[in-house]
Amino acid sequence: MLKKIALFTALAACMGTTYAYQAEVGGAINVLDIDGLSTETGFGVDGTYYFNPVEVKNNPLNEAAFLNRASNVNANFNYVDLDVASFTTYGVGAEYFVPNSNFYVSANIGSDEIDVDGVGSVDQTTYAAEVGYLPVTGLLIAAGLAGVDGDTGDDIDPTLRAKYVTSVGSYDLNVEANAQFGDADVYGIGADLYLDKTLSVGIAYGDKSNEAFGTDDQFTIRAKKFFTQNVSLEAKADFGDDINQYGVRLGYRF
């Protein structure tokens, strides 16, 4: 009897510390500092719904969904109003980790609209799809296509992407890389070090090379903190050739 009571107590304790969530929503404020123009503030909202509850276990809170291979649908909306124009972007997407396999597929579609005062608007539809494989725990390698179709023309280019989450000593590390090949070649790489399961600091670098317009690169520093299992706050600063952007995002899981 004593052994049964002890076993029940241990199981109850484990269940009491288990945490899972099935959705996350977020709101962001972004400040744009554009050379030659005034500084402006924009905002964004986003949301993700997971088909099954995501168990945090002993993973970094920010990587729980990826490490659980949690299939989901997601959406986002962003808006900024400048002196001479306004920019609106929105999109919907889905990620699907094929059950009982190491395969992955994703797709998204969105819209970008630029409304210039006294001139009119320019619209374009963006879309992408990819297939991927997870050869080992925490590693995703994916390839696909990304395209645009709008008032200024259309284009479609091949893409490559990789993401790897692993342990480094007593810390966790996330490394990501992406590339898009076409009239404008785009490359990016970033890394986040988890000082504990709730706090990360990271850096990223992106480069866009175009024969007609030259090279445009961007350097990013970022950090994210979970104050509880549900509430997170992240901040980032992007430094580019012509545009610097600073943003904060508040997220809530449930």
Question: What are the key terms here?
Answer:
254 residues, mainly beta, Porin, 2 helices, disordered N terminus
Walk me through the structure:
This is Putative porin. The protein is mainly β and 254 residues long. The chain has one domain (21-253): Porin (Beta Barrel). Helices cover 8% and strands 70% of the residues. The chain contains 2 helices and 14 strands. It has a 14-stranded antiparallel beta barrel with strand order 1-2-3-4-5-6-7-8-9-10-11-12-13-14. Strand 13 and strand 14 (243-253) form a beta hairpin. The protein is globular and about 55 Å long. Residues 1-17 have low confidence and may be disordered.
Can you tell me the number of structural domains?
A: 1
What is the terminal separation in angstroms? Answer: 38 Å
Count every beta strand, where a strand is a DSSP E run of 2 or more residues: 14
Order of strands across the widest beta sheet?
1-2-3-4-5-6-7-8-9-10-11-12-13-14
Structural class: mainly beta
User: What gyration radius follows from the Cα positions, in whole Å?
Assistant: 21 Å
| CATH fold type | Porin
- Separate helix tally: 2
What is the helical fraction, as a range of percent? under 10%
**CATH homologous superfamily heading:** monomeric porin ompg
Low-confidence stretches: 1-17
CATH level-two architecture:
Beta Barrel
- Major sheet attributes: 14 strands, antiparallel, barrel
Order of helices and strands: HEEHEEEEEEEEEEEE
Top-tier CATH class: Mainly Beta
| Large-scale geometry | globular
Query: How large is the share of residues in beta strands?
Result: over 45%
Instruction: Give the mean pLDDT.
Output: 89
Protein name: Putative porin
Organism: Acinetobacter shaoyimingii
InterPro entries: Porin_7
Pfam families: Porin_7 (PF16956)
